[in-house]
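notes to self, project folder thing:

trying the whole complex as one job this time. last attempt i did each chain seperately and stitching them together was a nightmare. two parts in total, labels are on each line so i dont mix them up again. if this works i'll redo the older ones the same way
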Amino acid sequence: MLSAIRNQIAIALRFFQQTDDYSISCDDICLDQPNDPSRGDLYTNAAMMFSKRLRGSPIKIAEKIKEHLCSLEVIESVSIDGPGFVNFVLKNIFWNSVINKILIDGCDYSSCNCSNNERINVEFVSANPTGPLHTGHARNAVFGSVISNLLEKIGYDVTREFYINDQGNQIKALARSLFLRYKEALGGTITADQFTEDMYCGDYVKDTAKELIDIYGDRFLNKSEDQWLPILCKFSIDAMLRNIKLDLASIGVVMDQYTSEAAICKKHMVEEALEKLKDNGDIYDGILPRPKGISEDDDWEERPQTLFKSTKYGDDVDRAIRKSDGTWTYFAGDLAYHLDKIKRGYCKMVGVLGADHNGYVKRLQAAVKALSDDKAEIKIRLYQLVNFLEDGKPIKMSKRSGTFITLKDVVNRVGKDVTRYMMISRHHDVMIDFDFVKAVECSMDNPLFYIQYAYARICSVFRNYTDGNTDIDSNLLINADKTSLKDESEVGLMKALLLWPEYVKGAAKALEPHRIPTYLQNIASLFHSLWNKGKTNTTLRFIDKTNEAETKARLSLLKATKTVIEDGLNIMGITPMVEMR
RNA sequence: GUGCCUGUAGCUCAGCUGGAUAGAGCGUUUCCCUCCGAAGGAAAAGGUCGUUGGUUCAAUUCCAAUCAGGCACGCCA
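result (full assembly):
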């Protein structure tokens, strides 16, 4: 809707351009609502933003912008204020086209194709397949899935990917744990000290042991470890992965692809990655310096290793890729995995990791840069941890005592939608306090309720109008004359709806899903306010049985509002509620 | 020791590539249901945007120091 306005501003700016050193694109032009509505419907600060680059005075540029804006039919008036703000008022007729665009496009109103169907790989969750997903994974899963939805909105071809760490010591430990439970289930006695520090003693391993017996009976019981280990490794990974997929489904997350670390290694991708880096001169044998944080009496010792020169690509220190016993490090596997992604054709990648992985960001970015000759790029988003509270009191979790909360616990307790909302309603860099009691309260302590309530109220109006139907066909509303919507609350709502695609685009580009619930809360607030105005001012009621034309105009605004709320909730993976009773 | 993140109203948080008088909710105080859902709305009070410098027409936003809190840093995965 705003592209014509942006275009005119861009043309005005180019008038001052003296060199071709840079290009002014419409995306660079900021349009927003002034804090004070009396200044106008929208403003741009482009004259000031570009005055330095264009070497012109902001006022002169603003005058040129004004001249071009005035040539547009939808502009009522333009004024220049302060150091160079250009404020303008839109004609009533403009709102007709805004509402109609939403009525016609539906949830596609916020979509654009500015990313040209480019492929992008979003890797998230990637939990070790050694147990059920826990609460930390919940934020990861929701964050990753909403980012994926947003990226699709702006025209990316998104692959949602889960990397399975299905080899290494922790898998062997899992298999050994399974074997102990297997023995136990077959009547053998096991003692607590047989579970070493790195093993898994959770009850879920007992369940897997039963499944193992169902299929294999007691045939491993008296066999040596090298005979059962490979089979039990595979068996336990498969079982854990099945559970992980169920857990993810319970909060509405479906992956497009699962990629196995073992499969990558089998393809000799590690060797290939190493070759590639060697060709670039990024591999050498050396000794890493002692990390400063390690105290003197620690058992750290110098060791010669094969190293990746990641400092060349912005990392703090070079990274080991081969252990002294000759086997690969975990990072070597990651080099292989990211080379695999690059070879699959992804130039853009996103990774979602918990804040405790912050030390890993630079080396991953270095790896992608080095392996792709700087052609591919990975953006890592770290999210802070979630504290779980029970009515204000923190719930302590410990793996040892078995008092850790699983993702399934959370979903069972508060449901998919509340879980998802809580996980993305805050900036990813901010810790979340997730209170089980407050999360399901029906008040403003629970903002999701407020948004759902607005949606349900709109459905309620439609029910009253149609005698029972919670929706109205947009086609019945397109011809309504929306220029009669003149109350400041109505116009305020329309202005907010106008900017919805801007918010979606901004949230997607910044990889900041929390902007969506923030926006929806504002929409809900504007709507509730309008609703209550109708209580005292009967001329603002949505349904006026004596005036069909007026009623349709108002219902079209409601339908547009409903569409945008629904769209926003869809992006968040939350199901809108047609009634709350 | 180094790196990353956080610090905005009593509390929990927004604040979009620097923009005009810094915004919500909770809590507190006062109003608004014979009327489409009061699980709502209107209004008041509440701030030296951790501190100090710097960059410029303009800094909560950028830069540098500094204080406070969180996380991380070895051949773990």
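what i see at first glance: Residues 313 and 366 of chain A are 5 Å apart (CA to CA).
need to look closer tmrw
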